[in-house]
Amino acid sequence: MQKSADMRWQKVTVALPYIWLLLFFLAPFLIVFQISFSDPVIGLPPFTPTVDDNGNWLATLDNYRFLLTDKLYGLSYLKSLMTAATATVFCLLLGFPMAYAIARAGPGLRNLFLLLIILPFWISFLLRVYAWMGLMNTYGVINNLLLWAGLIDQPLQLMYTDLAVYIGLVYSYLPFMILPVYATLERLDNDLVDAAMDLGANPWRAFRDITWPLARPGVIAGCLLVFIPAIGEYVIPYLLGGPESLMIGRVLFDEFFVNRDWPLASAVAIVLLLLLVVPIMFLQRQSADDEVTQ
Amino acid sequence: MNRRQPVFLFSVLAFGYAFLYVPLISVMVYSFNDSRLATVWGGFSTRWYGELLHNEEVLEAAWLSLRIAAVSATLATVFGTMIALALVRFGRFRGRTLLSGMVTSPLVMPEVITGLSLLLLFVSLQKFLGWPAQRGFGTITIAHTTFALAYVTVIVQSRLKAMDISLEEAAMDLGCRPLRIVFDITLPLIAPAMIAGWLLAFTLSLDDLVIASFVSGPGGSTLPMLIFSKVKLGVTPDINALATLIIVLVTAGVALAWWFGRRGSTQS
């Protein structure tokens, strides 16, 4: 009898969150998938049903056809991938040495350093992007400083450029790079590096043959954690980027809210998901590998 | 070791921290700027703080955001802990793969897709069931719970895995009922992870702009939505003041948590 009470309790523990996720996570995706095969109409809701009252099939591939033929969408997907990749490279270039330095610091200092990396993460994302607007404006802090120092005669155009988008992305996602890289470097046995050097390896060789291969799982995880969310980013390109920086997150947002074309926005979302499947699978395999090695 | 290496590492570290903190410090300095023009220094003043505290719109949005964050963080902690228990302690059960897939996907899902899909769900539900009649507090809370519970699950799960299972086994051997083991042993031991998860869920909810913009309706403006509508038009002094307040509050909170954590770890 006690056994059955136990089983009932376990069933509830599984079932309750299960139902929640089925309803609020899985069902919404099926709806997006379905609506991506509808036609837009003026009305509420602004799309046609995919099946009519008599059970006839009304689904259409028009939205996907449109995505393929109109250059804007292809270019936006490409632009998003390129921008995310560039931001990931810069995150790695700045994040790896920082993680390395933190891992080499003394234990007390190390915790303080880590805290200082995580702290900005707890401050509103939107306000951190906003802070850069104040720095990079035509008469913002950076331009004022450069003008005052006499290094430039005219303010530089910093805002509304690709550079501004890169800075915003690196700034927002840097902790996601540093933390996993730090986690692998911290576990790294420094004796290995010392041994290599004793055997005559120069520091570069010791780094290339020992530190880098051992840190690679953290580097891959960090790169994916930056790259994946950066592709769909909306706020940073909207606030810091120029009108030509049409990243796909912004295209989806505008298609939905400005053009009110819900079926097309859904198709944009489905294609974006398909693009993300490969890096996401990679990330999940990576974390599964991590569990095995631990 | 190589003598040049520490110098290089130190300069990268210094540059990195400057990169992270100069923008925040700049916002804080300019929040005390008397001038309405954000770019000209017009002398020291605290007038923007006064205006902020009398701005009904801002206070209302902040109150809505705090309520949503508290409720969704609590729900996410309950569900996230349940899922973590199921995944770590229940062994194999039917649908386990689907559950672990559904719970980790929101971690990497672009916000625009999560927002779009939930809105479409709410619209369909409204059409067929008449619920939710209007979008706002309820719909945003549901959306935030759904994506935050993934983070709570990950945190609690790693704590459960690291935990010594022999305590639970000992209680079981002594004839303790399974449900009592959970409440008397497991939950107290994973409480720190649950608190950390709750705080993260709370912060994520307060932070979210994109998902809330999708699933909110007229009149349901959260604080980030209000800030975004102002910031779109450029730098404004009252947002500088608001940002400063948030930075100071968060820093104080994190510093306190760190201090208590350090005291706790030196005592034990």
Short characterization:
The complex is a heterodimer of chains A (294) and B (268). In chain A, 77% of the residues lie in helices and 0% in strands.
Fold and architecture overview:
The complex is a heterodimer of chains A (294) and B (268). In chain A, 77% of the residues lie in helices and 0% in strands. Chain A has 294 residues and is mainly α. Chain A is globular. Chain B has 268 residues and is mainly alpha-helical. Helix content of chain B is 78%, strand content 0%.
Descriptive terms for the model:
A: 294 residues, B: 268 residues, mainly alpha, 11 helices
Straight-line N-to-C gap of chain A? 39 Å
Radius of gyration of chain B, CA atoms, in whole angstroms: 23 Å
Mean pLDDT of chain B, nearest integer?
Answer: 87
H-E string of chain A? HHHHHHHHHHHH
Low-confidence stretches of chain B: none
**Beta-strand level of the residues of chain B, as a percent range?**
under 5%
Looking at the structure, what is the overall shape of chain B?
Answer: globular
What would you call the shape of chain A? globular
Structural class of chain B: mainly alpha
The number of helical segments of chain A is: 12
Number of strands of chain A: 0
How would you characterize the largest beta sheet of chain B? none
Helical percentage of chain A:
over 70%
Q: How many helical stretches of chain B?
A: 11
Give a quick account of the main beta sheet of chain A: strands, pairing sense, barrel closure. Answer: none
- SSE series of chain B: HHHHHHHHHHH
Mean pLDDT of chain A: 87
Helicity level of chain B: over 70%
